[in-house]
Amino acid sequence: MNREQALRFETEFMPRIVAEVARVLDRGVRVEFVPFENLLLPTRLHASAARHGIGERGSRYPFDLNVFLTWDDDEIVRLLRPDGEARFLRYLESIGAKLRAWEGVREIDLISRSQAEATVLVGGLDFEA
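The structure assignment produced for this chain is given below.
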C-alpha cells in the first residue's frame, strides 16, 4: 500500500470505523486513529481508557485498556475498489461482534476497560462481516 492509498483509507473509512468503535465501546473510552507513517507503522486505531473497578471482573487484568488495531494492506487496497463501499458497510455492522470475539483471545475485558498486557495489537485485520 502506498501513501496515497493510506490517505484515502484514512479520509474515507477511518472516521467511520472510529465512530463505530467509539459507539460500541461507549463513554469513557478514547478512540482515535494514528495516521500512516511508513510500512512498519501503518494506519492504526487506538482505543484507551482507565480501568473500571467492576467487582471481580475489574481485577481480572492488571492493565488499563490500550489496544491498537491495524488492517492488512491488501485488504485496504481491496476496500478502495469500486465494490468496496458495500463490503465496508457490512463490516461496520459487524464491529461490535468482532470486538467481543477478540476479548478472550487477546485477554481484553472491554466492560472493565482492562487487559492482561500493557499494550495489545490486533493486527492484519480484514473487512469481512
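Interim note for the steering committee: Residues 84-106 form the longest helix (23 residues). Residues 3-125 form one domain.
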